[in-house]
Design a protein that fits this description.
Helix content is 62%, strand content 4%. By secondary structure, the chain is mainly α. It holds the Pfam family AAA_22.
Length: 925
């Protein structure tokens, strides 16, 4: 049933792992990259050339629009100076006090909702924002513009609302590259809900499919169009003078303006092609009407002259480098074989050869789009046989795996392309980037897709990320078979681990066991062994081999320690919480939790608190569990696409509320877990786990002693176990029938059912779902008058609780019944010789009483100082004195933004919602 994807061995194939999952709440995962990074040059404002024409009136008008309106659209065909104006505007706005500007240039890889949002969020990292969740966790929910994606925008909007500066603008250049309707709808929704201090500047060749009409009507849209960007006579004279061509006659310049309709790129080409001539030469057909409709003809005509005017070595350099999207010395050297690439790039930049500088210290340059299109068509015309070779050189040298994929695909080097896709998948899959992987796979020839095992492997990982376990299982089986045929044994084991995870998650326990039999005795490297250790733990639980779970987890922890690359923050936080309470699991789970804790350079994962919350609940540490659970509940509605987070969080919340006696709230929380399980993407989980969650509901009714509600569930709980359900449901069915009989006042029937449940309980347990059958049997015996045996059964459970220092199994019981039984046991134990055991049991009872009575509130108040850092205590003391954030900032000599962050931390740590509540907590001290 359960599945727990962990990391794999081969760095080239280090993707969501092949481990069996943590049951209903498993989360697919991939080996953790340092960060799902995008090329840094996408986020650099292009450098303005020293000879850029200063168009003060146009810039002033654009700046006024950016200040007055939330969205500014700069729309014109290529070559009209959109990017130049945006760069000037960004520089102007960034100079304003307490203002920030972020830049992103979009490209073809940003063409779906997930990748577009990834680019935008990477740009926003530059701003001082308080993120309620890590951006990777947000991206993991975005595959289209559906409900999960729209909900994932909530933490983004909350982060933008935390901006404490005066104004900020996000510049999105080349939006015309995004044509996916879902991506544009998601962007539209984000822009429509921006806080007033955040603005967006958009550059596009075409009118984007956004709510422009609505923004115009609201007065929230400023527009700069092609006619606004047309060069005037003064602008043209300034341009030519800056380029050393200031001696052009006025009639020639007027003719050029008429021919080009003020098109900046056309003017530059005409001026460069004039070369001392007093008249303009013949144009290609269609160029006389130059402007929006025919500028490509003029560009190609003069670009050929510009290219022809270059020295042969520079011409060859430019054509070879046309395969690159960005020109850095290292990449140009790799493609051309020249060792003087830096000097050549500097020379090209000085020639005004339609280049913009992304980094003029290296330098890193980018060709103008139309000039790049021309160069590529010219390269294909002159030397088509060289194109694959040039792309192969680029793919070999490109340090960014995602960019390398495109080069290998263009080179027709399918194996290298697939290897780069696997490396890229490490960053893309956990952040929802499956659409990009699928677009790459679609570019492979059909015969390659049909034969390469790596294709099936990637298809399986994409299906796994979309929670489509049936499809994923077929793909992994195919990949495994093909890897073996090709003799790629380690890759075959990688796919085999994922296949075993699918088997186990879907309840095909025999097939999961067969996978384990296949790897038994194999000398696998530690990283590759981790998934099979995990599968062994889950398979042992499923098959009732409880004694093997702890050793399997211990081996897993040892292998993770030996192979740190397998460390993934979610490895224990979600699914392994469901192993809490099983024999021998406490120590290895704690070890895994420590090994898999986020490192200082890691982003915080949304799911990180989940295991801590489960462990705190099982220990009965109400003071610890409540703030962590509260944080999880706060995050979960913002990210409904995080299926396992929703199920695990609401499952725990339901048990927690029921243990506090808040039964209506407990059922409301569990309904949310059921809703997550009923979602379309949970089809694989429902096969094996739907009734497990029904048994959680039955546990809530049992804790509330609600006979009617429990009876309504009985037909579904008594039904024979299905092929995809774990054998533990046999125990659960017998137990719930006994509990129902006990509620109906039939102790004889109850004893019969519960005796069978306890017998099965020796091998079939799932404590956080089903509780402990021995306690129900003890109640039945007590009601039947056999108090001696009732106390014996209760003593067994209590002894285990004392030994492991846990209250969890006792918290999952109806408090009045347990209290009566515990009182009788304490009275009896005082007459025994085991005073030490009785003392520890009484101490555990005091903790149980404190849980139910809220007796730890005094501890909570006394521990206030320990919860907060010294600086946070200083901030809270001033806050309680009625000071504002700005006053606190002045008093402590820190920034208002830092104060805001401290206040947010204080509210979270004290589990309060408002500053007033926090101040009251401080004053209560």
């Amino acid at each position: 049933m359960p599945i727990d994807p962990v990391a794999t061995s081969d760095p080239a194939l280090c993707t969501p792992s092949a481990a069996p999952s943590p049951g209903p709440a498993a989360e697919p995962r991939v080996a953790r990259p340092a960060r799902a990074a995008l090329p840094a040059t996408k986020f650099r404002t292009p450098r303005l050339r020293r000879d850029t024409v200063e168009r003060a009136a146009l810039l002033a008008r654009a700046a006024a629009g950016a200040l007055d309106c939330q969205v500014t659209l700069v729309q014109a065909p290529a070559g009209f100076g959109k990017t130049t104006l945006l760069a000037q505007l960004a520089e102007t706005l960034a100079q304003r006090p307490d203002c920030h500007v972020a830049w992103v240039t979009l490209d073809s890889d940003d063409g779906d909702a997930n990748r577009l949002l990834a680019a935008l969020l990477s740009a926003l990292r530059q701003w001082p924002l308080d993120w309620p969740v890590d951006v990777e966790s947000v991206l993991g929910q975005v595959h289209d513009d559906g409900p999960a994606a729209r909900a994932a925008l909530v933490p983004v909007q909350n982060a933008l609302c935390s901006y404490a500066g005066e104004r900020a603008w996000l510049v999105i250049d080349d939006l015309h590259r995004v044509t996916d309707a879902a991506a544009l709808r998601l962007l539209d929704l984000l822009l429509d809900r921006l806080p007033p201090e955040i603005g967006v500047l958009i550059g596009s060749r075409t009118e984007p499919a956004l709510s422009l009409a609505r923004w115009r009507m609201r007065g929230q849209l400023a527009e700069v169009l092609a006619q606004d960007l047309q060069f005037s006579l003064d602008d043209a004279q300034a341009l030519l003078s800056a380029r050393g061509l200031g001696n052009c006659p006025a009639d020639w310049l007027n003719t050029a303006l008429a021919r080009t309709s003020g098109w900046a790129a056309g003017l530059q080409l005409l001026a460069g092609a004039r070369a001392g001539h007093d008249t303009i030469g013949p144009m290609p057909p269609g160029a006389m009407a130059i402007g929006i409709t025919a500028h490509r003809h003029l560009f190609e005509f003069f670009a050929s002259e510009v290219l022809a005017d270059l020295p042969p070595e520079l011409r060859a350099f430019v054509l070879d480098c046309a395969v690159l999207s960005e020109l850095s010395p290292a990449m140009c050297e790799a493609v051309t074989g020249r060792t003087d690439s830096r000097a050549v790039l500097e020379a090209l930049y000085r020639r005004h050869l339609f280049l913009s500088a992304l980094d003029d210290t290296l330098p890193v340059l980018r060709f103008h789009d139309l000039f790049l299109d021309f160069l590529r068509s010219e390269l294909n015309r002159q030397a088509p046989e060289r194109v694959p070779t040039l792309h192969a050189r680029a793919g070999q040298a490109e340090p960014d795996a995602q960019r390398a994929v495109g080069h290998w695909l263009q080179a027709g080097r399918w194996d290298e392309a697939l290897a780069a896709m696997h490396v890229s998948a490490r960053a893309l899959l956990p952040t929802g980037g499956t659409a990009l992987i699928e677009r790459w796979l679609a570019q492979l020839p059909p015969e390659v897709r049909a034969a390469r095992p790596a294709v099936a492997h990637l298809q399986g990982l994409c299906a796994w990320s979309a929670w489509n376990w049936p499809l994923a299982r077929g793909c992994f089986r195919q990949a495994c078979d093909r890897y073996r045929t090709a003799g790629e044994h380690e890759a075959a084991f990688d796919a085999l681990g994922m296949l075993g995870a699918c088997h186990n998650g879907m309840g095909d326990l025999a097939s999961a066991r067969a996978v384990l039999d296949e790897v038994r005795g194999q000398a696998l490297p530690p990283a590759l062994q981790v998934p099979f250790d995990s599968l062994q733990a889950w398979s042992s639980l499923a098959n009732g081999e409880l004694g093997q779970i702890g050793p399997a987890l211990t081996r897993m922890a040892a292998h993770v320690a030996q192979a740190p690359a397998t460390r993934y923050p979610n490895v224990v936080d979600m699914g392994y919480g469901h192993l809490v309470g099983l024999p021998g699991t406490q120590r290895p789970i704690a070890q895994l939790r420590a090994l898999c804790a986020p490192q200082p350079d890691d982003p915080r994962e949304v799911m990180v608190p989940a295991l801590d919350a489960w462990l705190s609940f099982w220990r009965g540490d109400r003071l610890a569990v409540e703030p962590v659970l509260r944080r999880l509940q706060h995050l979960q509605p913002q990210m409904p696409g995080a299926l396992m987070l929703a199920m695990s969080t609401q499952h725990l919340a339901a048990l927690h509320r029921a243990a506090l006696g808040e039964h209506a709230a407990a059922l409301a929380a569990l309904r949310q877990a059921h809703a997550a399980l009923a979602s379309p993407e949970a089809v694989g989980q429902r096969l094996g786990w739907q009734r497990s969650y029904l048994h959680v509901q039955a546990r809530l009714h049992w804790m509330a002693q609600d006979t009617e509600a429990l009876g309504a569930l009985m037909p579904r709980l008594r039904a024979p176990r299905g092929d995809h359900e774990w054998p533990v449901l046999d125990m659960a069915s017998a137990m719930v029938q006994g509990q129902y009989a006990l509620l109906r006042g039939d102790p004889t029937q109850a004893l019969s059912c519960l005796a069978r449940a306890v017998d099965l309980h020796r091998h079939r347990r799932l404590p956080v779902f089903l509780g402990d059958a021995r306690l129900s049997l003890a109640y039945a015996m007590q009601e039947a008058g056999d108090e001696h045996r009732a106390l014996e059964w209760f003593g067994q459970v209590l002894a285990e609780a004392v030994e492991t220092d846990t209250l969890g199994p006792l918290l999952m019981e109806p408090a009045p019944r347990l209290e009566r039984l515990w009182d009788r046991w304490l009275s009896s134990s005082r007459r025994t010789a085991d005073e030490a055991h009785a003392g520890r049991a009484e101490w555990l009872r005091a903790r149980w009483d404190a849980w139910h009575t809220g007796g730890n509130e005094a501890v909570r108040r006394d521990a206030l100082g320990d919860l907060l850092s010294e600086r946070e205590r200083e901030v809270l003391a001033l806050l309680a004195g009625g000071q504002s954030n700005k006053q606190i900032a002045r008093g402590l000599d820190i920034s208002p933004h830092t104060v805001k962050r401290h206040v947010a931390n204080i509210l979270s740590k004290l589990v309060v919602d408002t500053r007033t509540q926090a101040a009251a907590r401080w004053l209560q001290r």
